[in-house]
Amino acid sequence: MPRDRQKSITNYSQTMSRVIYNETQEVFFQDVAIHLIVDKMLQASKGVGVHPQPSEIKSWESNAKNIKLLLIESQISDCYVTFEYRVPYHKSRIDCMLYGKGVDNKDYAVHIELKQWSNNSVSTTSCDGNFNVSDDENNYVDAYTGGGVRTVPHPSQQVKGYHDYLMNFVESVSTHQLELLGYAYCYNYDNVPGAALYDPMYSRIMKEHRTFSGNETMELAKVLYDALSNGNGFTIFNKMMRSATYPSSKLLNEVGGMVAQGNTGAFSLLADQIVARNTILDKIRKNKKAVILVQGGPGTGKTVIALRILAELAKSEKHYNVHYATKSASLLAGIKDQLPRGSKAKLLFSNITSFNPHDFSEDELDVLLVDEAHRIERTINNQYTTASKRTDLPMIDCLIRAAKVSVFFIDDLQGIRSAEIGSSTMIKEAAARLSVACDTVELKSQFRCNGSDNYLDWLEEILYNKPVVHSFSKEEFDFQIFDDLKNLYDTIVSKDAQPNGDSLTSARLTAGFCWPWSDKLDEKGDLVKDVQIGDFSIPWETHRNFSPRQIPKGYCQWFQWAFRPEGVKQCGCIYTAQGFEFDYVGVIVGPDLKMGEYGKLETDRSATKDPTLNRGDADAYIRNIYRVLMSRGMKGCYVYFCDKEVEAHFRNKLVQE
Q1: Of 102-111, 331-340, 410-419, 569-578, highest mean pLDDT
Q2: At the N or C end, where does the chain have fewer CB atoms within 10 A?
């Protein structure tokens, strides 16, 4: 990753919010001895919007005791101790980090993944991870965690995910101002013959980031002694906390290198993303008919995983016949636009309407990756399907039929029109009807909205009239309500196209579909400024009926709005914004959202200009549309409300610490 990327500089109080607990070794020992550490962590959690479950609180206490014992064994006296360090631009937290100067006089930060697993709570999985498509991340186990047995990454693999992530995003680490070491410590586990965590299948990842067991405590203590025994931990901790962070990579900026060149290093998969990727690769390795359902909300990495799988399989020596498909013409165009001119990789991308049984024999593809599966329609037929090719098969049946392994990436709350009927239930029912095994993987870790689950939970609670129990801080996510729409738009323009190292920042204005979309130019030959609110007016994205020659100078085609620089001069709707991410998104909430009785949000079908909402469950679609639009921003979301009662409702629910 280029080191000249513009860095994100935050104030010291913001960086300190990355950790829930931080103290000198001496104070840490005292806090454990007098049972104060959990109280401190709970108090700090409130300030950063973390809501730990009882099991997590119990693990904090156990982890702290075992880290104290480990440090005593290591004979270290002046390291600095942190627990629950939040990685940049993500919600994931590293269990423990220790800071100090090593015997070689270098500065070190050591991150440790802590597990309470016992030998009888862990087993290898039937998905053995030996599918040799790439050299990493094929490592996970079945473990009793979270109240049941789940498939989770091997501890060493989890450490690798964090390690690579920090190397990519924290300047002091990536430039080796301090050295980064990563290990796992399963203090209730024993490394004995037959122990699942030490199965030979994990030997490669264990060489990179070792997992130590309880009966290997002295070995880990020796490692820590070598890295931290010369003290000065607080100074080194400050060096890392004050370090600049590089902005998170945006998908379109990296897709060319990922797909055309097989360079997947820009995106380090974490936790459930690794499980999803490995589950898919394992099904391919077993060479059996299968359906995989990958569920995840905004920013959980569905498209990243799909494109990463595509890249890995496309470069494999086994020459897999793999395709990526989506209904979003703008997303397809955006991806293809980033690929080199004339690249054969463009042939790997298709619209989901392409897999007609007359064109694809059964299981012709090895793998079909269906992104935004919530946009699947009832039939694969369309206005261009000739009579000889029309089929009675539902679209979902055609997609499953076309490939040996069909993978569907879906967010059930992104349905936005009645013609699109894709849902997790529908896909599972289709798989059962076709006698194909269906596995489900749920993605929870999200990268968008600055990694703030609290913001997304808060947003959903308001939009769907649920009790509002979540809040978020300004440091978590930059959410602002504007009284002046011109001021909001000027802010979006100022945020767009700023130097971002090897790329530019992106910012776009979007709106609910509450204004007409003109397919003719005005009397001056310019785009009609359809979106008119008071003294402010702006054109929608260019109508699809305009040919490239008809488009006025300075504007782009409708499907290019999200990624061409000219797009900032126009307002986008749900159909051009869905599937994309921006650094900052502006959202005009139109009159289709209003206040009803008992202080509840209601929708007004009559206020929408979207003809597809004249039928079906318009109420759910309108709410889903604003959920999608208001979750497009990676760093911030700026909102203007046409209905001032709705604005007051949001302001009343907005509690930013």
Answers
A1: 102-111
A2: C
Q: How confident is the model at residue 132 (pLDDT cuts 50, 70, 90)?
A: very low
Instruction: Say if 622 falls within a structural domain.
Output: yes
Structural tokens at position 559: 């499907």
State which residues form the domain around 454. 449-653
Q: Quote the pLDDT of residue 14.
A: 47
**216 and 164 part of one domain:** yes
Question: Which three-class secondary structure state does DSSP give residue 452?
Answer: coil
For 78-113, what is each residue's pLDDT tens digit?
999 999 998 876 667 899 999 999 999 999 999 999
More confident residue, 120 or 111: 111
- Domain shared by 506 and 537, yes or no: yes
CB hemisphere CA count around 146 (13 angstroms): 7
246-250, 300-304, 370-374: segment of lowest average pLDDT: 246-250
Pair (234, 291) in one structural domain: no
Whole-number Å distance between alpha carbons of 633 and 479:
10
CA 43/CA 50 separation, integer angstroms: 10
Domain count, the chain: 3
Of residues 249 and 467, more confidence is placed in 467
Weakest-pLDDT range from 128-137, 303-312, 552-561, 599-608: 128-137
Task: Estimate the crossing angle of helix 54-74 against helix 37-47, to 10 degrees.
Answer: 120
| Sign of the torsion formed by the C-alpha atoms of 469, 44, 160 and 257 | positive
Residue 570 lies in a domain: yes
Given phi > 0 = left and psi -120 to 50 = alpha, else beta, which region is 471? beta
Q: Does residue 538 share a domain with residue 433?
A: no
**Residues 394/378, Cβ–Cβ less than 8 Å:** yes
Residue closest to 574 by CA, chosen among 352, 416, 410: 416
Q: Which helix (H) or strand (E) holds 161?
A: helix 155-169
Structural domain contains residue 420: yes
Of residues 249 and 26, more confidently modeled = 26
pTM, whole model, 2 decimals?
Answer: 0.69
What backbone phi and psi angles, to 5 degrees, belong to 405? -125, 120
SS3 sequence of 417-441? CCCECCCHHHHHHHHHHCCCCEEEE
Residues 6+ apart with CB under 8 A from 130: 138, 201, 285
Q: Which of 206, 8, 222 is nearest to 110 (CA)?
A: 222
Is 522 in the same domain as 572? yes
Q: How many CB atoms lie within 10 A of CB 646?
A: 19
CB within 8 Å of 423: residues ≥ 6 apart = 374, 410, 412, 415
Q: Report which residue type is found at 24.
A: T
User: Which residue shows structure tokens 């500065």?
Assistant: 107
Give 517-521's long-range contacts (Cβ < 8 A, gap of 24+). 517/543, 517/573, 517/609, 518/543, 519/543, 519/545, 519/546, 521/550, 521/552
DSSP-based three-state secondary structure for 615? coil
